[in-house]
Amino acid sequence: MTDAQRTPTPIDTIADRWVDTLAELSPGLATYIGRTEHNGRLDDYSPAGHDRLAAAAADTLRALEAAETVDDVDEVTKMDLSAELGLHLDLHEVKAHLRDLNVIASPSQDIRAVFDLMPTDTVDDWSVVATRLAAIPAALSGYVETLRQGISEGVVPARRQVREVVTQIARYTSDTGFFASFVGEAAPAEGHLPASLARDLADNAGAARVAYDQLAAFLRDELAPTASETDAVGRELYELHSRSFLGATIDLDETYEWGVEELSRMVAEQEAIANEIKAGATVEEAVAFLEQDESRKLHGTEALQKWMQETSDRAVQELGRTHFDIPEPIRRLECMIAPTNEGGIYYTGPTDDFSRPGRMWWSVPEGVDSFDTWRELTTVYHEGVPGHHLQIAQAVYNRAELNSWRRLLAGSSGHAEGWALYAERLMAELGYLDDPADRLGMLDGQRMRAARVVLDIGVHLGKPRLDGTGIWDADYALEFMRRNVNMSDEFIQFEVNRYLGWPGQAPSYKVGQRIWEQIRDEAAQRGGADFDIKQFHMRALRLGGVGLDTLRAALREG
Hints:
Mean pLDDT: 94
Largest sheet: 3 strands, mixed
Low-confidence stretches: none
Distance between the termini: 18 Å
Structural class: mainly alpha
Radius of gyration: 23 Å
Shape: globular
Strand content: under 5%
Number of strands: 5
């Protein structure tokens, strides 16, 4: 599918060197993209580590600004990498790292999660795991140093996030938690572990548990008393985070009003589908009716994993024949049950050489043992093909045109998650969600994403509540989500805590979808009768991950 190999340019060299710099300074990120040379290390989460990364970003930005572009590929690289580096420096300037603590994507989770992606097939692999486990106490100590500096400067996270992370850590460090289970199940494919390595793994995992418990004590005893009672971050910081997650600058007030309208439209669409499922039924009654249908249920995570894999394989096979050019390496997607119980569903991309394939992960909350296929079918399309996997793996594959930064690291949540929601709607248009129950499941997800736009902006900007009783806060947010999401209360509570602690991320899905649709409609208007939707999709995906402002500019000018 790719053309002849493009000759690398000076801008490609700068971008590739930035990937090398990130791999050196952020070994966890290196593991994510399949760079194994740093697998025995962890990031430096201390203030000095953050300063080194910011200085490297500034150096790279200066080099990029001085470089001349050679072709359209260079134009996109320069535009997008400059925006990302500048934003990194803006966030460092406002000391966002001093309050970097939330329930889903902060160093507390990142340090644990990197082990999910490490190879464990051989004795040598487990030896590297042992070395990285031994690095956890120092990494957490550096993180505490940063948070402690935040306390001294009055730059602190919300108390709610501190409290929830303490609860998460207790699950990590329990006798049945991640570290005990992870090393307890160590078994290389080639045979038994040497006794000395088994001892190292056990000792280092034990030290990691102690270090995490010490982090929890710091959070509980030092940070919580000084943490903010307010969940909202305010407009100035929110604008930076929104730009980070979208790769685009938006009118937040207009987007909030659009979110309210979009939510109403989703509700109306759901109500119409509910009537198809059961004549005269409300959405809640249709959901209750479907939840009693055993033919649409899966019991146990083993059944869930099998169904995910079969559904994904079928989508890859069929769409690869009809609507997308899917190269052979991309056709492999592994569906996994995550080793945690946090409630998230997520995707991790393939390594550069595809030796580790793209993976769809389901972190099933404790106590959840049954799953509704009508509710989750669209999730498989969202995370797999034509969603995240097609998008991200396509960029990795396109080495003929793209430098390593464009293939492996560039992009934004709005680009990726917006495409995934766009892909859900595309599957409906292609007939894969013609069953009213499956379509209701897709709309349930779309309604949730629209609700998140309203909630996230509403809370963090202190908007008036929709019922006119005051301004948005955590209690109203939870009540609002319970009214708009047909999922377990454990999931809803986790999700609301996520939005409160990760400002700007949740709206990037639906807002990203909106921008993708706007870009497609603009291209269709320009192309007229010659517009080819399949060609549009492939041209957009071949750009790799980019910010949405860059995507719009590149597709308009190309």
